[in-house]
Amino acid sequence: MDHSTYVLITGASGGIGYELAKIFAVHKHNLILVARSEKKLLQIKEELEKKHDVSIVVMPKDLSANNSVTELFSEIKHHGMEVHILVNNAGFGDYGHFLDADLMKLQNMIELNIRALMQMTYLFAGEMRKKGYGKILNVASVAGFTAMPYFAVYAATKAFVLSFSQAIDEELEGTGISVVALCPGPVSTGFERAANMTYSKTMMLGAYSPLQIAKSGYRALMKGKSVQYGGWTVGMVNIVSRLLPRKWMRKIVKKVLQHE
Ligand SMILES: NC(=O)c1ccc[n+]([C@@H]2O[C@H](COP(=O)([O-])OP(=O)(O)OC[C@H]3O[C@@H](n4cnc5c(N)ncnc54)[C@H](OP(=O)(O)O)[C@@H]3O)[C@@H](O)[C@H]2O)c1
């Protein structure tokens, strides 16, 4: 592996991002790890460098903050590091009635799930285009398939990620850059706590572990697929959400999520 090329993973301090970091390290990729908690990132750096003989750079950032993405991009360029694989994984949700939510939290969600992901893609894909090679994995969600009462803003952010990723994957055809949207269903990670919810047993039926989701994302990225569902249950939800009228879908989702 070229020592100046790196896989950049956002949200690498836990959950799906951490599992992706482990998989890339096993495959001998150098890593740039981004999240807010520097302590956790440093522990992961120590663990993975020892086990896999790769170079890991830790860049603690709050990506919902203004200018954080441009700062990150400048620091990476300044150090002469080249990002040939970008994983936009950092994101969070917020469960509950829209009007009872904390407005600042909802705004930060849009900053992280949408604005930061779009900016990261713009800046790093721009560099990839100059080299004629690059891969991007954007973590969307089953929540992006349909309107979701009680997850209204989160589902809308993931609909953005899914639509945006598919559109630019098409635009970038022939440039050597591919973009995958990974759509997991419920996965047991720090997500539930951040979203103020606990998945019910029904929701977790047929659910996958963060490791399984990370593996399927990695495989899809390597194959250059456009969309990867987090298992057959998510594939089924996608089909059903296309067949049923949108009005019915939102009623069904409301019933399911009311009891979370
Ligand atoms: N778990 C699920 O059920 C599920 C289902 C579908 C899709 N997803 C998506 O999967 C992705 C990963 O989530 P997860 O399930 O692995 O949840 P998680 O365990 O809560 O991980 C979220 C990661 O994002 C980082 N992060 C959060 N806010 C950040 C910020 N402002 N700036 C930088 N990093 C930030 C967190 O680290 P710090 O706290 O250290 O910043 C953490 O590393 C998200 O995009 C989520 O929407 C999850």
Structure characterization notes:
By secondary structure, this protein is an alpha/beta fold. The chain has one domain (5-258): NAD(P)-binding Rossmann-like Domain (Rossmann fold), CATH 3.40.50. Helices cover 50% and strands 14% of the residues. It contains nine helices and seven strands, in the order E-H-E-H-E-H-E-H-E-H-E-H-H-E-H-H. It has helices at residues 15-26, 38-52, 68-78, 103-131, 152-171, 191-194, 210-223, 232-243, 246-258, and strands spanning 5-10, 30-34, 56-58, 82-88, 134-139, 177-183, 227-229. It has a seven-stranded parallel beta sheet with strand order 3-2-1-4-5-6-7, with helices on both faces. Helix 2 (38-52) links the parallel strand 2 (30-34) and strand 3 (56-58). The radius of gyration is 18 Å and the shape is globular. Bound molecules: NADP nicotinamide-adenine-dinucleotide phosphate. NADP nicotinamide-adenine-dinucleotide phosphate binds next to helix 1 and helix 6. NADP nicotinamide-adenine-dinucleotide phosphate is lined by residues 10-17, 35-37, 40, 61-64, 89-93, 112, 139, 141, 184, 186-187, 189-191, 194, 210.
